[in-house]
Amino acid sequence: MSNLDTQPVRERCGGLEEVAAVPVRELLEPRRVPLGESTVVRRLLPNLGRRMVGAWCFVDHYGPDDIADEPGMQVPPHPHIGLQTVSWLHDGEVLHRDSLGSLQTVRPRELGLMTSGRAIAHSEESPREHAPLLHGAQLWVALPDAHRHTDPAFEHHAELPAVRGGGGLDATVILGTLDGAASPGRTYSPLVGADLSLAGGTDARLPVEPDFEYAVLTMSGPCEVDGVRLAPGSMLYLGCGRRELPIRADADSSLLLLGGEPFEENLVMWWNFVGRSEADIRRARADWMTGTGFGTVHGYDGAPLPAPELPNAPLKPRGRTR
């Protein structure tokens, strides 16, 4: 998924300054951002005052959108460095192409996981013949310094482990580990991403790691997390220090649970790049604009996205202390 802002702001991410070392209940308001021809997303990370949750550094929630008579998602070829992208659908399909030659249709409750490493380019689009609804989330995971220049890769996992939580709650482990169940997707830091399905009348307590910070995104239906009522499309940041998470729902609903060990490294995130310095970002932009290092995405009917102009202000990571 691309950040299609034509004037993207630099984001100073990572470190421990903004990590809540105790349980909190912080509601994050989304920002509406157009994505391609007919899709508008709700951007929940990065957010004012909250840049990351563990290694999760970018969260877009979109739909459910009626695209029966629309082209749906149309995101031209664009570059990434220093991160992983996670595609997660509840409705519809997304056709993934990348500069490694991958061609894969990702369907609901299947994991599309792309590791950019040192450099990759990809496109995402609704197939020509597609379902009438499109609903899902696109997420980025920052790679730690030791792995940010790793070889690029793409994984598709149609079968993912389930956790039967009892009390009306079931979970699919998208990435990382939850309650002893581990996703087959490759990770580079301790984290978790899970899709929680809540039946009407759910009253459950989900085991979580006290050293992780967490947030939940409400995908559909109203629910209550740790006593906070949430409407669809909202995100609640929860901080650290919990061993279990109370969840209730009067009607069928679903959540994404995101968490991980607080990311201690300081990052610079601009457009579709995650680096450690202004030089990293400038180099990646120049390489993309000159056709160097990212390879070519074949088969997409359209031109690649040009990179926006860099801002006049310096791109600096910000140090943090807890």
From TrEMBL:
It comes from the Bacteria. Residues 302-322 are annotated as: Disordered. Residues 194-292 form the Pirin C-terminal domain. Transmembrane segments: none annotated. Gene3D superfamilies: Jelly Rolls. Residues 45-141 form the Pirin N-terminal domain. InterPro entries: Pirin (IPR012093), Pirin_C_dom (IPR008778), Pirin_N_dom (IPR003829), RmlC-like_jellyroll (IPR014710), RmlC_Cupin_sf (IPR011051). Signal peptide: none annotated. Belongs to the pirin family. This is Pirin family protein. It comes from Streptomyces gossypii.
